[in-house]
Design a protein that fits this description.
Number of domains: 2
CATH class of the largest domain: Alpha Beta
Strand content: 5-15%
Largest sheet: 5 strands, antiparallel
Shape: globular
Structural class: alpha+beta
Distance between the termini: 48 Å
Order of helices and strands: HEEEHEEEHHHEEEEHHHHH
Length: about 350
Amino acid sequence: MSEAEFDTDRAIETGSRLAGRTVIAADPARPGGNNRVFCLRMDDGSRIALKYYPSQAVDPRDRLGQEYEALSFLAEHGVTLTPRPLASDREENCALYQWFGGEAAVLRPRPDDADQLANFLIELQKLRNAVGAQKLRRASAAIFSATEAITQCEQRLHRLHEHATDRGLREFIDRDLAPSASLARRRVEQRYAKLGLDPAALLAPDCRALSPSDFGLHNAVRGEDGQLRFIDFEYFGWDDPVKLVSDTALHPGSNFSDGSTRQLIERLSREFGAGDPAFAARRDALYPVFGLIWCLIILNDYLPESRSRRVMAGRDGESGAILAGQLDKARRFHQAICQFDPDLAPR
């Protein structure tokens, strides 16, 4: 389905058919490069979310299936801070969900936001042994060993380098990212050897975490009561809790203060460290690796599939400004990672 077909008439028709009720209006809500969401106003005054997903010809991941299964699992086990799934349509590549009204949390962050995110993730882990949990998929880009984390970083770096025609990007890769990635690999290998750990050993299933994967204030809505409710679970599944903690703390969509970041890491580390004596050591070794991966994710706009999404979204004319902004953001992110861990700074 092309961007031109994401119009209100199509949303009203699709929503009415899937809901089995009359939709009187469809308002675009929270549009983004990865999906389109409409707030459907029903004939009884209620509201429902209609979400279209990117074509698997553009992104082969089954985002519809992953999110619908995840939210069904959470709803079945009484989770109320995530939207209930209502109906889905594979042919239209869309689904209906409970609508969460409120303000995007990222617009006006509050001091207790990091605690609210931590509370949700801690509560989520109580479902690790719940009925249906073992059938859940791996989280998107999940890792279960240090070797997998390093490999993912190096593969992302190699792919970005292959498509780096921009001079500024190539200089940033050669001068900063590639040397830091080599230093990070060496550091992980040294630390694991010192601890007597095998970097290729897979994390035991009972030490793994349920993870939203793409989680932060950018995917949260604040209700009038101040409570955060969480949307967008397209990447949900099993993952290493070190990656979950690192990604949540590092996610550019939250932009937490240093104090909030430390608070988040400390709370989640207590949760996961209680069942995994090696958690803190693995976290300290791998946190910089995930920081470098985030630098590379920020630069995904340089990859061909991202350009395809910009074309579909009618934003290709903004390409130069988008790429320049992302490169500057990645540079600042890399500087922050090197300040956190000076050993990663290129020499």
